[in-house]
């Protein structure tokens, strides 16, 4: 790339042909005409600017002439965006030299953070995103690609593309799927508490495109009885089971013995997020079981609201996935954006 600041005499001496193909490094204005920075000057642009300089309405230009291996910022940004883009996204046209990736449908954003950081370390390439695991809406911008200079070497863009494709996809949105959820309450609860549980869980599931089946109540200390209740929920066609009244910190709960009897397993007891750090995740017959120590907590906003949306995309979470909740897991009022948009009365 060769660049220069041209005064009016320089512009006049070069003529239109000396300007055509150059890229503006700063905005230009002549009378009522304006050209934004980053614009590649075509023949018509060059003619108008040359005439403006000759007429004294244009004092100076800052321009660069591309080398044979230079790539314009709009092209570079689009190439990076397409290399990073995974399922559930579409790329918008360049705007101010930035290419945005938007969600095609509502779902959960998944980001390969280490790979994004590695790409962004290739100065001056830029890729920036929302948070990994963040619920997003259809049409929402979830990531953007950009380069800092108006012209960048082809080899650098190709290097960024190669890195992105090696770790592909760097960014994707998993859309929500329609699940039929079962519910099992294993604590003594008043009719009012059960109604709050059913309402809260039902509203949250409905907001994400799923439905809640009948709530089965089995407040028993008998592991066999709990196992029968859980088996009945699973055999009823539940693709996800919400369990209320079992604490992650109580290994004596008959639920865990019942889970073992059914060949299930605990994925993780407790998660590194608050409130809701005592939630747990298990599996039985390849069906995820999401539980809280008190059934009433499903009507509140807790760490369960970081886990539930991901389960409703069909993602199979493991202990490492849940450990990722630690960063951003202090769920104060300022972290409300991490929860889905359930609507009124649903946490």
Notable traits:
single chain; 347 residues; alpha+beta; 6-stranded mixed sheet; elongated
Provide an overview of this structure.
By secondary structure, the chain is an alpha+beta fold. The chain contains ten helices and 20 strands. It has helices at 8-19, 43-55, 73-84, 113-120, 154-166, 191-207, 223-235, 254-261, 304-311, 319-323, and strands at 2-7, 23-24, 28-30, 33-35, 60-65, 70-72, 89-91, 99-103, 107-111, 125-129, 135-136, 141-147, 151-153, 171-175, 180-185, 211-217, 240-244, 265-269, 280-284, 287-292. The strands form six sheets. The protein has a six-stranded mixed beta sheet, sandwiched between helices. Strands 7-8-12-10 form a four-stranded antiparallel beta sheet. A three-stranded antiparallel beta sheet has the order 1-5-2. It starts with a strand and ends in a 24-residue tail after the last helix.
Summarize the structure.
The protein is an alpha+beta fold. Helices cover 31% and strands 27% of the residues.
């Amino acid at each position: 790339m060769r660049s220069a600041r041209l005064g009016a005499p320089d512009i006049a001496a070069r003529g239109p042909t000396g300007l055509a193909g150059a890229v503006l490094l700063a905005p230009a204005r002549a009378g009522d005409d304006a050209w934004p920075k980053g614009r590649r000057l075509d023949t018509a642009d060059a003619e108008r600017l040359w005439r403006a300089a000759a007429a004294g309405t244009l004092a100076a230009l800052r321009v660069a002439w591309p080398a044979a291996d230079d790539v314009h910022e709009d092209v570079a940004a689009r190439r990076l965006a397409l290399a990073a883009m995974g399922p559930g996204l579409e790329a918008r046209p360049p705007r101010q030299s930035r290419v945005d990736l938007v969600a095609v449908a509502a779902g959960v954003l998944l980001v390969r953070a280490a790979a994004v950081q590695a790409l962004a370390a290739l100065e001056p390439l830029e890729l920036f995103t929302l948070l990994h695991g963040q619920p997003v809406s259809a049409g929402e911008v979830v990531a953007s690609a950009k380069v800092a200079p108006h012209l960048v070497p082809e080899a650098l863009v190709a290097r960024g593309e190669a890195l992105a494709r090696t770790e592909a996809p760097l960014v994707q949105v998993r859309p929500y799927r329609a699940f039929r959820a079962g519910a099992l309450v294993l604590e003594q609860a008043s009719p009012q508490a059960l109604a709050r549980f059913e309402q809260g869980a039902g509203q949250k599931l409905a907001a994400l495109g799923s439905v809640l089946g009948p709530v089965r109540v089995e407040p028993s200390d008998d592991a066999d009885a709990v196992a029968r209740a859980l088996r009945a929920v699973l055999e009823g066609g539940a693709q996800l089971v919400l369990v209320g009244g079992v604490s992650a910190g109580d290994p004596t709960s008959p639920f865990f013995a019942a889970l073992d009897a059914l060949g299930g397993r605990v994925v993780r007891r407790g998660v590194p997020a608050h409130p809701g750090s005592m939630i747990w995740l298990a599996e039985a017959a390849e069906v995820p079981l999401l539980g809280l120590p008190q059934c009433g907590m499903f009507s509140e906003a807790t760490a369960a609201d970081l886990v539930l949306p991901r389960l409703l995309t069909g993602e199979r979470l493991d202990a490492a996935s849940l450990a990722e909740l630690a960063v951003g897991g202090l769920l104060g009022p300022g972290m409300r954006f991490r929860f889905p948009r359930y609507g009124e009365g649903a946490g």
